[in-house]
From TrEMBL, chain A:
It is an enzyme of class 1 (oxidoreductase). Residues 213-251, 835-892 are annotated as: Disordered. This is DNA oxidative demethylase ALKBH2. GO terms for molecular function: broad specificity oxidative DNA demethylase activity; cytosine C-5 DNA demethylase activity; DNA binding; guanyl-nucleotide exchange factor activity; small GTPase binding; zinc ion binding. Keywords: Dioxygenase, DNA damage, DNA repair, Iron, Magnesium, Metal-binding, Nucleus, Oxidoreductase, Zinc, Zinc-finger. Pfam families: 2OG-FeII_Oxy_2, DUF5601, VPS9, zf-A20. Signal peptide: none annotated. InterPro entries: AlkB-like, AlkB-like_sf, DUF5601, Oxoglu/Fe-dep_dioxygenase_dom, VPS9, Vps9-like, VPS9_dom_sf, Znf_A20. It is found in: Nucleus, Nucleolus; Nucleus, Nucleoplasm. Residues 227-236 have a biased composition (Basic and acidic residues). Residues 880-892 have a biased composition (Low complexity). The gene is LOC111352157. One of its GO terms (biological process) is DNA alkylation repair. It catalyses: an N(3)-methyl-2'-deoxycytidine in single-stranded DNA + 2-oxoglutarate + O2 = a 2'-deoxycytidine in single-stranded DNA + formaldehyde + succinate + CO2 + H(+); a 3,N(4)-etheno-2'-deoxycytidine in double-stranded DNA + 2-oxoglutarate + O2 + H2O = a 2'-deoxycytidine in double-stranded DNA + glyoxal + succinate + CO2; a 1,N(6)-etheno-2'-deoxyadenosine in double-stranded DNA + 2-oxoglutarate + O2 + H2O = a 2'-deoxyadenosine in double-stranded DNA + glyoxal + succinate + CO2; a methylated nucleobase within DNA + 2-oxoglutarate + O2 = a nucleobase within DNA + formaldehyde + succinate + CO2.
UniProtKB/TrEMBL annotation, chain B:
Belongs to the small GTPase superfamily. Rab family. CDD domains: Rab. It comes from the Eukaryota. It holds the Pfam family Ras. Residues 189-209 are annotated as: Disordered. One of its GO terms (molecular function) is GTPase activity. InterPro entries: P-loop_NTPase, Small_GTP-bd, Small_GTPase. This is Ras-related protein Rab-31. SMART domains: RAB (SM00175), RAN (SM00176), RAS (SM00173), RHO (SM00174).
């Protein structure tokens, strides 16, 4: 405090804010180190108002002040705000020193101070105006702030108005928040930067500080052997536990630092405006909603458990659970745990009363009401249990620390055996071990149960196992020691938290009465006994006891631990064995099924084989007829034979082919026959060989279009030549020929020329004999007239156009052929060759003879061909051409 | 079918180790439930229904561990109890002195009225008697309790009477409406015509089952008066 007088007032760097209605000057006149000292002194010396003076009345309601407050001043001064009159206490030394400091700084001697202490981030002061009549309006209000930084918000009063009067004046925030570099430095003043995580120390100083702290704790725990005292980590627990405890420790440390870092906001002599930091209000979610799954779960279980009860009961219970949860969550932050517990119990009673009075529950029996109560409690608490720090080891309680302490205590007492407790246990009997093991697993399961009712149920089951463990007839005298023994061996997680949770939030009626309540009481007794266990309570020598207690916990492992772990292993082995057994039965099943499948498959195969065999036996090889396809080609070849030679050999060929056709199906040698048939042709006209080649190709291609061979055979026999003529184009022109033929109806001349498939060309050739001298030039025009009058002399001319097998005409053909892309591929050449051949043929002396013969043939051919042509449009197109030559001949 | 009053009460058995609390209880329930109870199941907690003239008393009997080392845990047991059986051994003065201690403790720790019954056990050991029955009766009267002597070995009737007396006193207590922890309600599911008094009802509840006892001697003993209310 003396240092305050040494501060150089002139050196203070004043800054100012001037806004409408605001005249503010601020500075940091007290250096950090001095300010810290003052803060400490204020912390130590000031005492704050309690009782009514620590409450505030807002709109007729009384609230606890969200901060601590005390007022000092010259004698006789009071200060009234918000309906509270604050008496001024005599000045204490540190505050007086500050007043003197202000006199030196600003030359104003204040006579009253209100000290506000903000203990943590939730303490605050709302927006207010210092417009009380007692204040001197001419004197400025001075505000001094110590401790942590806080925002100081100034608002214009008009900005708070509503409606028209409201003016959008933005609030002014004191820039004093600006953090000085010195503020960032380590608190130890070692010139390194500090960190809020390390409580403002630099990393090195923080570590040292922590070590000192731990040492101090160690010492304190050594002097006070109470279980509540924090003990140094023994580092002998299982890893998961130790990591958990580490986390615990961290958490605890944090909460401690929070407590340490409470803020003393020292607002001296009335501030000109408010400072508020309603962080807590902002953090809170605006509207909390219970997830629908709670509701759904209740609905489902209600239907399952109380099918006889009406929907009104269902709705009532769900409504209650909803309001109950909401109420607890709302109050959890405000009330202490005990208050909350009371409130919860009142809620239970409220629901009980509701059940007694409401008409919905008129027909519900008392036992069912109790079940409903449990049901409601279960669902509400199951949900609340999962919310962190609301009902299970709530914030503001020591539960978690006590859990750790208890766990360590039990660890330390692991040497306590059944003889110390006078339990009648038969360590050697496997039944006994099994029972103990079961009891322990139930006890361990208590932590995982969510609702108090479920936890109680676990305890009840545990105690029943313990009772069976004791010699019959087991009484309380036996039960309690055995239960203590079980707890010691189980070391259940979060034991204190669980017990407190049940005690606080279980329906009191259930807890006080009933089997569950009785056993739970026993458990509480056991825990209490363990907590306060001494040498006397074990009836043993103090020295021996101390010796045991000094022993590291790891050594204290007893035969029981081994027996229990054996039990666990045995159980696990049993489970595995059962699993293996199940697997084995399954594999056996699969195996038998597989065998069955194999047998089935075999018998099926045999059956099929037998059937096939039968079928084969019934139907000897008749697959050969399929070769008729190539025979078709042969037929055509055979038929082509006459085409080539026309009249000359046709008769012979017919004679030849007819016999040949019949043997074909029998004889596989198909190709040789046509060659034989052609041989005569060749002998007659060696020049036709190229055609034969062509035809040979055709034969092969023929196989693709499938035609019923046998039916046609006879017709073939009859038609032969004519049908051959018709068919020949298709082998040459392939499939496109058909489509072309349709298109070519428009231009029959071209069609005709193009269709100069060998057969046709031959026919034309006949005509050529007569019109050999015809102009080639007319060739293109002529076909147009063709359709008009095949029999007219013009037609003859047209025919001459066909003939132009002379080199000249070939050119014309080529041009015409060029127009047809498809034909240009193959046909032109062949056709070109054809004309030449035909030219040679022109020599044929037989031709006239043929002609004479032709008429004989032709009528037959025509008739047959016409019949065929009618069937297919393609042949219809072809129809005129065969007719023409005849017609042309007839006139000739 | 008429409505029947049902009272639920918790009764705690207190006394030093070795006075025969357990054998008392075992004798009581053993006789009643020989059919139902497997011998391995304990007798530390059980419920029984006692039918009185126009009411039914559901008794929850909490046995306590009598060892001296568990003495400090007793408050957990007798919290919210409506009745207490204070059992002592007539051959042991110390056990009778302990009863006096229990009574003091109950009076200072239990805020609500309780039905107290002082039971001198081991009446079969008359030769070794160290506590005179007159002395015990006098003490019982001074604390407003009833006194009876029993023998867990022979005297089944005495034990039955202890429980019956307690039940009757509890009924009175509930009628006085002074005790809030004593639950009572009307039940429509009990038909007194159907269940003749004295016949055990085969209700499924806890493993210890429930019992109906004959109500023949209510008037003779029922004088367990209300303790003065200790609520502050």
């Amino acid at each position: 405090m003396e240092k305050l007088k040494e501060i150089e007032m002139k050196a203070v760097n004043w800054k100012s804010i001037r806004e409408e209605g605001l005249d503010l000057e601020y500075a940091v006149p007290i250096p950090k180190n001095i300010a810290n000292d003052i803060f400490k002194e204020l912390e130590n010396s000031l005492e704050y108002f309690t009782g009514d003076l620590s409450k505030i009345k807002v709109f007729g309601k009384v609230y606890p002040l969200p901060r601590q407050q005390v007022a000092y001043g010259d004698p006789g001064i009071t200060y009234t705000y918000s309906g509270t009159t604050v008496p001024a206490l005599p000045w204490p030394a540190p505050v007086l020193a500050l007043r003197d400091f202000l006199v030196a700084l600003r030359g104003i001697k204040y006579d009253f101070v209100l000290v506000n202490k903000y203990r943590n981030g939730n303490d605050h002061m709302g927006e207010h105006r210092d417009n009380e009549p007692e204040l001197d309006p001419t004197a400025p209000i001075a505000s001094l702030s110590f401790g942590q930084q806080r925002t100081f918000v100034l608002k214009h009063r008009d900005a708070r108005k509503t409606g028209i009067d409201k003016r959008p004046i933005p609030p002014v925030k004191m820039p004093s928040l600006r953090i000085d570099q010195s503020d960032l430095k380590c608190k130890n003043g070692c010139d390194y930067f500090g960190n809020p995580q390390w409580q403002g120390y630099c990393s090195k100083c923080h570590r040292e500080q922590m070590q000192r702290q731990r040492k101090a704790e160690k010492e304190s725990s050594a002097t006070l052997p109470k279980p509540e005292q924090k003990k140094p980590d023994r580092g002998l627990r299982i890893p998961s536990h130790s990591s958990f405890s580490k986390f615990e420790e961290k958490r605890l440390r944090q909460s401690e630092t929070l407590k340490k870092a409470n803020l003393l906001k020292f607002s001296v002599f009335k501030k000109s405006s408010t400072d508020d930091h309603d962080h807590s209000a902002e953090k809170r979610p605006p509207e909390f909603k219970i997830p629908g799954i709670v509701n759904e779960g209740m609905k489902r279980e209600f239907r399952a458990r109380f099918p006889q009860l009406g929907p009104a009961v269902d709705r009532d219970s769900r409504l209650f659970v909803h309001s109950f949860i909401m109420d607890v969550i709302k109050c959890a932050n405000v009330l202490t745990v005990d208050e909350l517990s009371e409130r919860v119990q009142r809620q239970y009673q409220r629901f009980m009363k509701h059940m007694d009075t409401s008409s919905h529950f008129a027909n519900v029996e008392a036992d069912t009401k109790e079940l409903l109560m449990d049901f409601v409690e279960k669902h509400a608490m199951t949900y609340l249990h999962e919310l962190p720090s609301v009902v299970f080891s709530p914030s503001g309680t020591d539960d978690e620390r006590l859990d750790r302490a208890m766990s360590e205590r039990i660890q330390q007492l692991s040497w306590v055996g059944e003889r110390h407790l006078d339990c009648k246990l038969h360590r050697d009997s496997p039944d006994c071990r099994q029972l103990l093991y079961k009891a322990i697993s139930e006890l361990l399961g208590m932590d995982s149960a969510l609702s108090p009712g479920d936890k109680l149920c676990r305890v009840r089951r545990c105690c029943r196992h313990v009772l069976r463990l004791c010699a019959a007839p087991a009484s309380a005298d036996d039960l309690l020691p055995a239960l203590i023994f079980t707890v010691l061996k189980a070391n259940p997680p979060r034991l204190v938290s669980n017990i407190n949770f049940v005690t606080r939030f279980c329906n009191a009626q259930r807890l006080m009465t009933g089997e569950g309540g009785y056993y739970f009481t026993n458990l509480c007794c056991a825990v209490s006994f363990i907590e306060n266990l001494t040498a006397e309570s074990l009836n043993m020598d103090k020295k021996e006891f101390d010796c045991y207690m000094a022993m590291p916990a790891s050594i204290g492992g007893s035969a029981w631990a081994a027996a229990l772990s054996l039990c666990g292993a045995a159980r696990e082995a049993g489970e595995l064995r059962a699993q293996a057994h199940a697997l084995r039965t399954r594999t056996d099943h699969v195996h038998s099924r597989a065998l069955l499948l194999a047998a089935n498959a075999q018998s099926f195969e045999e059956q099929i084989a037998k059937k096939v065999h039968d079928v084969l036996a019934k139907t000897p090889l008749e697959i050969k007829p399929r070769r008729e396809l190539p025979r078709l080609g042969n037929l055509k070849e055979v038929n082509t034979g006459p085409l080539i030679d026309l009249g000359t050999t046709s008769v012979q060929e017919e004679l030849q082919t007819k016999p040949e056709v019949k043997p074909e199906p029998l004889a596989a040698t198909l190709l040789p026959i046509p060659t034989e048939s052609k041989e005569p042709n060749i002998t007659i006209q060696p020049e036709t060989e190229p055609k034969l080649n062509i035809l040979g190709f055709e034969v092969i291609e023929r196989q693709s279009p499938s035609k019923s061979p046998q039916n046609l055979d006879q017709t073939w026999d009859l038609k032969q030549t004519s049908s051959l003529e018709l068919l020949t184009p298709s082998p040459l022109g392939f499939t496109p020929f058909d489509s072309r033929s349709i298109d070519e109806l428009m231009t029959p001349d071209e069609f005709g020329t193009d269709q100069l498939a060998p057969g046709l060309s031959n026919i034309n050739y006949d005509i050529d004999l007569s019109d050999f001298s015809g102009d080639n030039s007319i060739a293109e025009e002529a076909p147009k007239s063709e359709p008009k009058d095949p029999f007219s002399p013009e037609a003859l001319r047209k025919i001459t156009t066909f003939d132009p097998f002379a080199p000249q005409t070939s050119k014309g053909f080529e041009t015409a052929l060029d127009s047809f892309d498809e034909f240009s591929f193959v046909d032109p050449r062949k056709q070109e060759t054809d004309p030449f051949e035909v030219v040679h043929r022109g020599q044929d002396p037989f031709s006239p003879v043929e002609l004479s013969k032709d008429p004989f043939f032709n009528p037959e051919k025509q008739s047959t061909s016409i019949l065929d042509d009618n069937d297919t449009p393609a042949t219809a197109c072809l129809l005129p051409s065969p007719i023409q030559p005849q017609s042309s001949k007839k006139p000739t | 079918m008429c409505k029947m009053k049902v009272i639920e009460a918790k009764i705690v058995v207190l006394g030093s180790q070795g006075v025969g609390k357990t054998s008392l209880v075992v004798r009581y329930i053993g006789k009643m439930f020989s059919k139902h109870i497997s011998p391995t199941i304990g007798a530390s907690f059980f419920t029984c229904n006692i039918n009185l003239e126009n009411a039914r008393v559901k008794l929850q009997v909490w046995d306590t561990a009598g060892q001296e080392r568990f003495r400090s845990m007793a408050p957990m047991y007798y919290r919210n109890a409506n009745a207490a059986l204070l059992v002592f051994d007539i051959t042991s003065v110390n056990s009778f002195a302990a009863i006096k201690g229990w009574v003091k403790e109950l009076q200072s720790n239990v805020p609500e009225a309780m039905v107290l019954s002082v039971v001198g056990n081991k009446s079969d050991l008359e030769d070794l008697r160290a506590v005179q029955s007159s002395e015990a009766a006098q003490f019982a009267a001074s604390i407003g309790a009833q006194y009876c002597e029993t023998s867990a070995l022979h005297d089944q009737q005495g034990i039955d009477q202890v429980f019956l007396n307690t039940a009757a006193s509890l009924l009175k207590l509930s009628n006085s409406n002074l005790v809030s922890s004593l639950r009572s309600y009307d039940s429509a599911d009990v038909d007194p015509d159907k269940i003749p008094t004295g016949t055990p009802t085969e209700e499924d509840a806890t493993h210890t089952g429930k019992v109906e006892l004959p109500a023949w001697s209510i008037d003779s003993i029922a004088h367990g008066d209300v303790q003065k209310n200790m609520c502050c």
